[in-house]
């Protein structure tokens, strides 16, 4: 009975980790797309130069 519970617990942990990693991949892709779009649509500064689109 204990080995069966350990196997089920291991499967639950691996499924949870797999779901979390997949969610993190989707978040990373969305952030990358937003970052690339920020370079395309950044506002023009004084003199027609493109300024920074971020604040740091």
Task: Describe this structure as you would to a colleague.
- It is rod-shaped, with a radius of gyration of 22 Å.
- The longest helix is centred in the middle third of the chain and has 39 residues, at 2-40.
- It contains one helix and no strands.
- By secondary structure, it is mainly α.
- The mean pLDDT is 78.
Radius of gyration (CA) equals 22 Å
Q: Outline, from the CA principal axes?
A: rod-shaped
Order of helices and strands: H
Outline the biggest β-sheet: none
> How many β-strands, per DSSP?
0
- What's the helix count? 1
> What is the end-to-end distance?
57 Å
Poorly predicted spans:
none
Helix content: 55-70%
Report the sheet-strand fraction. under 5%
Mean of residue pLDDT values? 78
Kindly list the characteristics that best describe this protein.
single chain, 56 residues, mainly alpha, 70% helix, rod-shaped
List the helices and strands and how they pair.
Elements: H1 2-40
Summarize the structure.
With 56 residues, the protein is mainly α. It has one helix at 2-40.
